[in-house]
Every structure is written in structure tokens, then in C-alpha cells.
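Task: sequence in, structure out. Protein: Phosphoribosylamine--glycine ligase.
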Amino acid sequence: MNILVIGSGGREHSIAECFAKSKQIKRVIVAPGNAGIALQYECANLQTQEEIYNFCVQNLIDLVFVGPEKPIADGLADYLNEKGVAVIAPVKFAAQLESSKIFAKNLMQEKGVPTAAFKIAKTIPQALEQIDYFGFPAVIKNDGLAGGKGVFVVKNPAEAQEALKKIHFSEKGVVVEEFLQGWEVSLFAITDGWEFKTTIFAQDHKQLYAGDKGPNTGGMGAYAPVYEAEKYRKQIEEEIINPVLMAMRELGHLYKGILYCGLMITKEGPKVMEFNCRLGDPEAQVVLPLLETDFVEICQAILQGEINLVELKFKNKTALGVVLASEGYPFAYNKGFPLSLPADLSGIYFSGVEKGENGLVTSGGRVLCAVGMGKDLNEAREEAYSKVQQITFKNRIFRQDIGLHKNTFYDNGDS
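Result:
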């Protein structure tokens, strides 16, 4: 089979690697990819839906797998479906679970899916009123896509005013939520629209600095599996994933592909923080290397409505990834700094890099993710941070505490 992976980051790098392991694969192409991915896989500079379709025809592409949120929200799956090209991604209507926080929150409220209490604000004064209603800390969210950077946790009136200056008010408004106490975990549901199978749990580290301090980012590191979350799996499947997929069917739009559930484990049980309509980044970089089931078989089962026949198998190991970013991320940052890399690039997934005069140079906020694997969390951490020490570039930043969360509840409700 010839596979086309859409996207240009570390997630797409790990997806390409996962496909390449299959004996059914002839070619794996990543579009547009990046100069780091191009060290291992073919890349094609495709930007528009039409360019993607024409490339599929000319290169006899058997399957398109869409990585990032924007092409999904823009309806790439609808376009390729109409043209008869097999694609793994939900259609534009179903992708509103990610592209519109307000759509997702209203659907969850209607179906009784556990999530944070919320209100919709159309103006800054209205948002401030609602923040008063919930009290501090409170959460303010963009309605639309924001690259993982559209969520603000505000602890006082000054922070609320500052966040509301930065946030984008769509026609529908913004979401103001109660702040949930607990610990975070991510779970992927792989679905044909009717049945679904869930992966191992992963834990992302969203804040920029150690100890979960600083602004939200697209993710500074992750690990999998998260054993403490296992006891909640059945409840998450029955109270969250099943009702949401059923709701999409009732609305006349099967949700096919990957549904990412971003969850807070609270004292009352799991609650939804957000849905993504794809694999997460950097969670994909720690979940996919542990996957033993053939990724092509999983994709074919999604397309053929036979996901219930697939058995998801994972290695009995732990994977942990540390993101190396450019100083200044998630805001303004300098780029163009040369990377010094180890000879062995296994477990290194490139995001923000491009070709320089003498090798790769930085070109993005998140530059790469270094993943270690081991028999347990400590061993995986050791290997990941050993790789980090072998990678240098000017102005690099990273968190030293990936995988050190205590997934427990304290008397004062903090986590």
C-alpha cells in the first residue's frame, strides 16, 4: 500500500513510523512534512485539497491519514470522500467537537456527558460577570482552533483582564468554565462511527515550566501508559465516548477516525476538558511506538466498519517523550539555530526544523520530541533525558519533570 500522511510535525513523524512498520506498506509519504522527517521518509510539499487529491491520483495512494486539526476542520475528509479517496479523519461537521468548543460543550450538556460547568460569553463585560459567578481560579477558552494555546486559567481579576485581551471572541462567543481540580489524562478512541476501541492512557504536560507553571502550550512532553487511570476506563467508555458517538449518529454524521478525550480525573470521577478529532501531539509520539497491532489493519477496520474485530495490543513497556522548544515559545521566538544531533535518530520526532547550510536548523516553537522507552517509567525517563542531553541548539528549553506528576488527590483539593 501507498500511504499519504498529512501534516508537518512530530505527531506525523510518529504516524509515518507506525505505518512503515507494517508489512503491507510500499511507500509512506508525509505532506508537507519537514526537513527532519525527510531524513527518513519521503515528503511532498502539498498545501491545498486539490493538490493533495491530484497527488493521490498520480501516486496511486491507497490511504490518506490526516494528522493536524486544521485540514480536518477545513473539511479535507469530506473533499476526499467525495472524490473516492480512502481517508482517516472525521468529516467537517463531526470535527466541530474540536473546532467549536461551544458545539462540544452544548452537546455534552444535552447528553449528560460529565464536563466542567460552563457559560457562554459574547463580550468582555459578560465574560467578567461569568468569571465572578464561578470564582477564581476560572478557565476561559477560545471557541475555535488555537493550536493548543487558546485556554487561559485565570487566578485573579488582573489575569482575567489580560486573558480577555488576548482571546478571540468568535461569532458564538467564548467559553467560561469552572476550574476542575484533579489530574489530567488523555485517551484515544479509534472508531468506525458505531463501535470503538480505546488505546492505553497517556499524560500530556501542557504548561511551559516544571511544576505545571506558566502558559499553556501545545504540549511539552508526555508518557504512556498511565496505570492509575485504568480503573476509570469503563466509566469513560460508557459515560463519555459512547454517548458522544451516539449523538453524532443521531445528528446524521458518523464520527469515523480518532477521537481524543482530554480528561480531568476529579474526586467525582472523570470529566471532559476537551475533545480533539485526531491523535494528540505529543501523546502520539509515546502511544504509537508502543502499539503492536498493525496500523494498516486498524485503518482498514475503521473504513470497513469492522473496528470491533480488531484487538489493540501494546508492548508491556513505558514510553516517555520530552519536547525541546525554542525560548520564547508559545509566544515570539527566534529561529534559524543549527541543531547538533546524535548519530542514532531513533525515538527523535521532528516538528519545527528546516534545512540549513550544514544540516537542520530550528524553524518552530516546538522543535522536536525525544522519546525514551523502558520497562517502567523511571527507565523510560532516563533514556529520554539521556537523548535530550545529546541534542543541542541555541535557546533550547525543555521541562525537567516530565513523568513526575503525582496522580493522586490531596486534602486541599490540589493536584
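The first strand starts at residue 2 and ends at 7.
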